[in-house]
Design goal:
heterodimer, A: Rna Polymerase Sigma Factor, Chain: A, Arc Repressor Mutant, subunit A, 9 helices, elongated, B: mainly alpha, 8 helices
Chain lengths: ~190, ~160
């Protein structure tokens, strides 16, 4: 009977319902469909890519084992799955000690103009490091809204917060990034 | 009507791209932008950081795209292996083929009823007949011996 199921065309609610009955092909379709998003988000929140892959794998296994608990009347499947992924990333970041600041964040060489540094990608390095050093909830909010294009309301549902709380996280994150870039001779105005 | 304070809050949070702003506030934001120099300046300031973030994302994406399919393949095989290894459901009640087998048993398929009924009737008849003979008193031993004796001559000649 399972061979006839239209996995590629089925919606998430059907796939997870079939998964709850033990249909592994249905769950594999969920992994194919949502794995790329999960890997992108986790790679931005975890300390390295291999850790991100481990986190997403764990999230997927949890989703499989809890698939019978998913209630489509209470939440969208993506919200439910992404919340598992993001929560695991947050847990992981809280367990891992922050990395020491790299050497290239020492005061910039005044002999090199800001434009030259920009060309060399130093601004990228500064910004990338500043993003990485953000508190994990701020980083998660930035990733979901700015990198993945989710709305503030969707992000709030994934993080289990109010929309206003998400906006506060975003505003704090942006303020930190502005300060970090200003310190590296980047002028806002 | 959107206040300038709320406009600043939204710009600080979502940046200069109004597509990221809450949908229900975009029209008001556009209206405010049309009439407020301060609002336009706030958005211009927010755009500076947006541009840096976009440049960062562009710089970053080629690195992230390398091996993306390979990463997804690893994820699929890893998840499959862990599910198979754990097997709390596959080895038990949740397994697909077992659930189907159970489902088939519960489906209203009565093709087996005729065979079962015939077999049951045959067994019941056997028990009944067997019980009848078992309950009859055994013949007396003298009567049994007399049955084995040859018949008297006069009876044979009649």
């Amino acid at each position: 009977m399972n061979k006839l199921r239209p996995y590629a065309y089925a919606d998430d609610a059907d796939l997870i319902s079939w998964s709850a009955a033990g249909d592994r092909r249905a769950f594999d379709q969920i992994v194919v469909r949502h794995g790329p998003f999960a890997l992108r988000v986790a790679s931005r929140l975890a300390s390295d890519y291999l850790t991100a892959e481990d986190i997403v794998q764990e999230a997927m296994v949890r989703a499989w084992s809890r698939s019978a608990d998913f209630d489509p009347r209470r939440a969208r499947f993506t919200t439910w799955l992404y919340r598992i992924v993001v929560n695991l990333c947050i847990d992981h970041r809280r367990r891992v000690r922050p990395e020491p600041m790299p050497d290239y964040l020492d005061p910039p060489d005044p002999a090199i103009s800001a434009d030259e540094r920009l060309v060399r990608g130093e601004q990228h390095a500064v910004l990338a490091q500043a993003l990485k050093n953000l508190p994990v909830r701020q980083r998660a909010a930035m990733t979901l809204v700015y990198d993945e294009g989710l709305s503030g309301a969707e992000t709030a549902r994934i993080l289990g917060l109010s929309t206003k709380a998400v906006e506060r996280l975003l505003a704090r994150a942006r303020a930190t990034l502005r300060e970090r870039l200003k310190a590296e001779s980047w002028q806002e105005t | 009507m959107l206040s300038l304070r709320r406009f600043k809050w939204l710009a600080d949070s979502y940046g200069a791209d109004l597509q990221r702003w809450p949908q229900e506030e975009r029209d008001d934001a556009l209206a405010l932008l049309g009439g407020s120099l301060e609002a336009r300046e706030l958005l211009a300031q927010a755009r500076r950081l947006d541009e840096a973030l976009e440049a960062n994302a562009r710089y970053d994406s080629p690195h992230r795209q390398v091996g993306r399919q390979a990463a997804l393949d690893r994820l699929r095989s890893g998840v499959e292996a862990r599910i198979a290894a754990a097997e709390p459901r596959s080895a038990g009640w949740g397994s697909g083929w077992k659930m189907e087998a159970i489902g088939r048993l519960l489906q209203p398929d009565f093709s087996w009823v005729g065979v079962a009924t015939g077999g049951g009737l045959a067994i019941a008849a056997g028990l009944l007949i067997g019980g009848f003979y078992a309950s009859a008193p055994p013949p007396a031993s003298d009567a049994l011996l007399s049955m084995l004796e040859p018949a008297p001559i006069h009876l044979l000649t009649e």
